[in-house]
Write a structure and sequence with these properties.
Layout (H helix, E strand, L loop, with lengths): L1 H31 L3 H43 L10 H25 L15 E3 L2 E3 L8 H6 L2 H5 L6 H9 L3 H11 L2 H10 L4 H30 L3 H25 L6 H28 L5 H18 L5
Antiparallel strand pairs: 1-2
Helix pairs in contact: 1-9, 1-10, 2-3, 2-9, 2-11, 2-12, 3-11, 8-9, 8-10, 8-11, 9-10
């Protein structure tokens, strides 16, 4: 038990410092990156890494979290009973985790932008361009030169890897404090991501999840760091935001540990938390990563990296021993 607790504590600090360091990294990058070509290359790298992270997240949700949640719920609902529960309880709970995050984001954005009005309604950047009678979209790395010339360095580098609504919140909110609070609120799903680490029962599962979560947090923290740099600069406000953001991202590990270290009668709670975390992973995979990366850009390189990410998790699955 003690080595497992030590591993979870180590995972907590790894997630915290990875999030903080990659959130602070844009401050250094912006001082060094000046050429437009270099900025677009970094943007392309972020986009492709995001696709790899999407494959890792999908594999983690499908091959690890979903199976473990199903097993935990089955043990509680059917263990010791002659009559098995013939109802998709796990699937309902996973869907609940998905909809909890979706509802939170919708409510927060409606509060931010007003009822019936969202940032997506006025986004003209991804308008279709007719080519030979067909409508198509250009990839991020092939962005319109006119648009590129009007974008800032931060816009170019963070065009992929952060939710579009986060950029709109920062752009439309004059108050740094209010914008920071909304960005943190939109990042609440990170608690459920790290919570999945805190409720694992083996060290291999912890390290596998930590790989997936850390990769995703590197990209998100870097992109959010770029956006918040516009608003907060490089002073104490930025440091305070990154400390809170990093603490929020890693706090799920401690919450999960609190539920798993009590000993008896906790299988149902673990199953529910595992299912909610699985729903969160599905939300992040399809709404925040794959949907944005593939909606208007059918890149074979991105598809390949997504498959590689899934394959890495599938390979790690073979190392597990019951």
């Amino acid at each position: 038990m003690v080595p497992l607790v030590e591993t979870k504590i180590a995972a907590f600090f790894i997630i915290f410092f990875v999030t903080f360091l990659f959130g602070f990294l844009p401050t250094c990058v912006l001082r060094c990156v000046k050429g437009g070509a270099t900025q677009r290359k970094i943007q392309t790298v972020i986009s492709h890494l995001n696709c790899f992270a999407g494959g890792v997240f999908l594999g983690t949700a499908m091959l690890h979290l979903l199976a473990e949640a199903e097993e935990s719920m089955r043990e509680v609902l059917n263990g010791g009973n002659a009559t098995a529960v013939d109802y998709p309880v796990t699937e309902i709970t996973v869907s609940g985790g998905f909809f909890v995050i979706l509802i939170l984001e919708v409510v927060i954005l409606r509060i931010m932008h007003g009822v019936g009005h969202g940032p997506g309604e006025k986004n003209e950047k991804c308008s279709p361009k007719p080519i030979h009678g067909y409508k198509t979209y250009k990839c991020l790395e092939e962005s319109d030169k006119v648009l590129i010339e009007t974008e800032t360095v931060e816009d170019r580098l963070s065009a992929s890897g952060v939710h579009d609504d986060v950029r709109e919140v920062i752009k439309d909110t004059p108050s740094p404090l209010r914008a920071s609070l909304f960005v943190l609120a939109l990042s609440l799903h990170m608690i459920f991501e790290s919570l999945a680490v805190g409720i694992q029962s083996t060290e291999l599962k912890i390290w596998t999840l930590l790989l997936a979560i850390s990769l995703h947090k590197c990209i998100v923290a870097f992109s959010i760091g770029l956006e918040m740099h516009k608003l907060l600069g490089t002073g104490c406000k930025m440091m305070a935001f990154l400390l809170v953001f990093s603490g929020l991202s890693s706090s799920g590990v401690l919450i999960g540990m609190a539920f798993t270290e009590d000993g008896v009668g906790e299988s149902l709670i673990i199953g529910i938390l595992q299912s909610l975390a699985t729903g969160t992973f599905f939300y992040v995979t399809f709404f925040e990563i794959l949907q944005r990366e593939f909606a208007h850009c059918h890149s074979l390189a991105k598809l390949f990296l997504c498959l590689v990410g899934y394959g890495v998790v599938a390979g790690l699955k073979t190392l597990e021993k019951d």
